[in-house]
């Protein structure tokens, strides 16, 4: 059994890690941290897990955690992971970080996040459909939720060298903002409403660019997010402008070949409901006949394929398990 630790166990992604790992046949959760809820049972923060995870939150230091664990998930805010990762790695454990601390080269991170990186080191971007090399990594920077849906939607066409520009328009559920309440997440501001934000400069644009430009340096990208009145899920509409005419069969072949053997990407009508609670990314496309545009739509659960499920997929690959282990569940639709 893999001995697993979670730093930041009271949060939304920590709760999803606990929910999914409690069903994982090859993982045993041995330590879950919280500074504010230390000593309390897991189900005080996550009532849905009563009877499933029989542990209490602990406030312990990273080297004590490393001693007990083969792998540790850091499900903490940006900037907090880099404060614990060096000690975890020094203790010999492998780390999957759900924050943005290890997704970008240091100079880009510092520019985008406006803070100094305290632990500059090479990063391994944990989008396993594109980076199977995660298998050998000691530290994986698990992707952001929006970049996961956007990159998976566009990567096959960008890798085929046919894309001039990709414009991503994403709608997200509110859990992407984490558990701390704010005016943005306040019910009257979210219910029966759609809120666009960071129209041109959302920090996730850097991740999207990093991954797509690795396939084709000349591709141009734009990204605009919106919050919709849903707890979970991200639906991304990608307007992809191409440099040549393609038939529907040709585009289908490009996607089928790119995602051949990639279990968690399905060519399937995307909807938030169909992927809710699951690690799937559903993708469909339509060619805008007579124009240079292909509309590609993807749907993920931001907390599963967009965070904790993908992190467990990475763990499975890093430890030589079938990537699907513990992630068998379908979506909760309808
Ligand atoms: N929500 C989402 O859909 C997604 C989130 N992410 C990223 O995952 C990370 C976690 O997100 P999320 O679960 O939403 O966040 P939450 O705000 O819901 O939870 C944060 C957790 O981190 C702990 N924590 C906070 N500050 C520190 C610190 N300085 N040191 C140690 N622990 C700390 C908190 O517990 P306590 O204060 O008790 O210690 C809490 O358990 C973030 O970096 C986020 O950007 C990534 C993809 C999707
Ligand atoms: C609704 C909402 O606020 N969403 C978050 C996305 C959070 C996320 O998952 O990404 P990171 O891990 O990079 O923080 C946002 O736009 O900042």
Brief summary:
The chain has 334 residues and is α/β, with parallel strands linked by helices. It has eleven helices and twelve strands. Helices cover 29% and strands 21% of the residues.
Description of the structure:
The chain has helices at 12-21, 42-45, 62-68, 85-90, 106-113, 145-159, 187-190, 204-215, 248-258, 272-275, 304-318; strands spanning 2-7, 27-33, 71-74, 94-97, 139-141, 163-172, 195-196, 220-227, 234-242, 265-267, 281-287, 293-300. It is an alpha/beta fold. The protein has two domains: 2-123, NAD(P)-binding Rossmann-like Domain (Rossmann fold), CATH 3.40.50.720; 145-302, Dihydrodipicolinate Reductase, domain 2 (2-Layer Sandwich), CATH 3.30.360. It has a seven-stranded mixed sheet. A five-stranded parallel sheet has the order 2-1-3-4-5, sandwiched between helices. The two termini are 35 Å apart. The relative contact order is 0.14. NADPH dihydro-nicotinamide-adenine-dinucleotide phosphate binds next to helix 1 and helix 11. The site of NADPH dihydro-nicotinamide-adenine-dinucleotide phosphate has 30 residues, from helix 1 and helix 11. The active site is at 145. Pathway: Amino-acid biosynthesis; L-arginine biosynthesis; N(2)-acetyl-L-ornithine from L-glutamate: step 3/4. One of its GO terms (cellular component) is cytoplasm. It is found in: Cytoplasm. Its EC number is 1.2.1.38.
Structural topology:
Blueprint: E1 2-7, H1 12-21, E2 27-33, H2 42-45, H3 62-68, E3 71-74, H4 85-90, E4 94-97, H5 106-113, E5 139-141, H6 145-159, E6 163-172, H7 187-190, E7 195-196, H8 204-215, E8 220-227, E9 234-242, H9 248-258, E10 265-267, H10 272-275, E11 281-287, E12 293-300, H11 304-318
Parallel strand pairs: 1-2, 1-3, 3-4, 4-5, 6-8, 10-11
Antiparallel strand pairs: 6-9, 7-8, 9-12, 11-12
Helix pairs in contact: 1-11, 6-8
Subcellular location: Cytoplasm
Enzyme class: oxidoreductase
Family: Belongs to the NAGSA dehydrogenase family. Type 1 subfamily.
């Amino acid at each position: 059994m893999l001995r697993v630790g979670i730093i930041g166990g009271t949060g939304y992604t920590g709760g999803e890690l606990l929910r999914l790992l409690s069903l994982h046949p090859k993982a045993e959760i041995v330590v879950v941290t919280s500074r504010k809820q230390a000593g309390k049972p897991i189900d005080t923060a996550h009532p849905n897990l009563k009877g499933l995870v029989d542990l209490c939150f602990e406030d312990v230091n990273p080297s004590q955690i490393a001693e007990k664990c083969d792998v540790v998930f850091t499900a903490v805010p940006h900037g907090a992971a880099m404060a614990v990762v060096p000690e975890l790695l020094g203790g010999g454990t492998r780390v999957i970080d759900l924050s943005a601390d290890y997704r970008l080269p240091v100079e880009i991170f510092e520019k985008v996040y406006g803070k100094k990186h305290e632990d500059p080191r090479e990063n391994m971007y944990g989008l396993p459909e594109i980076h199977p090399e995660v298998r050998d990594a000691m530290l994986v920077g698990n992707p952001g939720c929006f970049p996961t849906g956007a990159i998976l939607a566009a990567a096959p066409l960008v890798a085929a060298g046919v894309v001039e520009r990709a414009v991503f328009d994403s709608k997200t559920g509110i859990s992407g903002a984490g558990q701390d309440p704010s005016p943005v997440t306040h019910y009257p501001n979210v219910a029966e409403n759609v809120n666009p934000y960071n129209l041109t400069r959302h920090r996730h644009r850097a991740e999207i660019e990093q991954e797509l430009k690795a396939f084709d340096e000349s591709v141009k990208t734009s990204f605009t997010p919106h919050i919709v009145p849903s707890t979970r899920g991200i639906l991304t509409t990608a307007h992809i402008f191409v440099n040549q005419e393609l038939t529907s069969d040709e585009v289908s072949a490009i996607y089928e070949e790119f995602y051949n053997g990639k279990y968690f990407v399905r060519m399937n009508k995307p909807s938030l409901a169909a992927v809710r609670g699951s690690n799937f990314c559903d993708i469909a496309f339509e060619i805008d006949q007579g124009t240079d545009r292909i509309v590609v739509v993807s749907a993920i659960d931001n907390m599963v394929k967009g965070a904790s499920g993908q992190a467990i997929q990475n763990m499975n690959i890093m430890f030589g398990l079938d990537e699907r282990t513990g992630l068998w569940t379908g979506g909760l639709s309808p």
